[in-house]
Amino acid sequence: MRRLCMTMGLFVLVVLSLICGVTRAAVIVNGDFSTPGTPPAGWTTDSVVGDPPTGNGEFALFTVTGFSAQQLQQPFLLLPGNAQTLSFEFLLSTADDGTTGSATPDNFQATLFEYDAASTAVGNSLLPSPDPSFPAILFPAFFSTDNVPLPNPKQFKNAAVTVEDVLTGPRQGWKRVSVDVSSVPSQDVMLDFSLFGDNDGLTTTVSVDNVELTVSNLAAVPEPGALLIWMGTGLAAAGFLARRSHFVGRVPRRTRRPNTIRRTP
Ligand SMILES: [Ca+2]
Ligand SMILES: [Ca+2]
């Protein structure tokens, strides 16, 4: 079913692009989380990483108390030769959990990984990490800690990421994150949202909504043959390389060591 939806989405994208030049690509399934579920329909959770967030029909709600993690991910295809922006909206909030822990602050992160549709293996991060001293292949392009130090979450992002505050309306307090992914070559990718929690005395919740891929100035409309090739690739269900949950970024299981965990700065 997902394969059919993504195929139809790609076709609609190409047609709409011919008509108007700019469109929000339908390659991301249920990006508005209008279809509920745990995890929300169209999204998956790697049980090695954590538990699925809840989709209430409006947004995805992540919650972590103590040492725990929640995660959503979805594979899709980046198209060739276009200006493309990946965006989403989120609201992070924390509350005292009644303990006095001093562990690593909870952190929410968004990462775009390489993805092999045939083997369903997830590879390295495709975008630079916010800090040059972090290994780019392991760390997310964007992440936000909880409200330590109070009152505001601390955010980290690379140069391709912009963050806008929603200042008015019912979504006041939310943030809209946009990432220019034009520099990433056309390929299958895996979008990953993860919230990692630790015993820092706070319970953290993150709402996520309106995950979109916006495509403008479609430079090259594929030949029918090429379109069929696209349809035949990158449409598989999600699969994952195992990774441990409790630090910023991901480390393939084969390289993991207990005392090489990097902490949130
Ligand atoms: Ca929504
Ligand atoms: Ca916590």
For the structure shown, list the relevant keywords.
Jelly Rolls, single chain, mainly beta, 7-stranded antiparallel sheet, 6-stranded antiparallel sheet, disordered C terminus, 265 residues, binds calcium ion
Describe the structure.
The chain is mainly β and 265 residues long. It has one domain: Jelly Rolls (Sandwich), CATH 2.60.120. Helices cover 11% and strands 36% of the residues. It is built from two helices and 13 strands, in the order H-E-E-E-E-E-E-E-E-E-E-E-E-E-H. The strands form two sheets. Strands 1, 2, 3, 5, 10, 11 and 13 form a seven-stranded antiparallel β-sheet that branches. Strands 4, 6, 7, 8, 9 and 12 form a six-stranded antiparallel β-sheet that branches. The N and C termini lie far apart (42 Å). It binds calcium ion (CA) (2 copies). The site of one calcium ion has 6 residues, from loops.
Secondary structure layout plus pairing:
Blueprint: H1 2-20, E1 22-25, E2 54-55, E3 60-64, E4 68-78, E5 83-96, E6 107-116, E7 121-125, E8 142-145, E9 155-157, E10 161-165, E11 175-180, E12 187-197, E13 202-216, H2 224-232
The structure holds calcium ion (2 copies).
One calcium ion binds at residues 32-34, 58-59, 209.
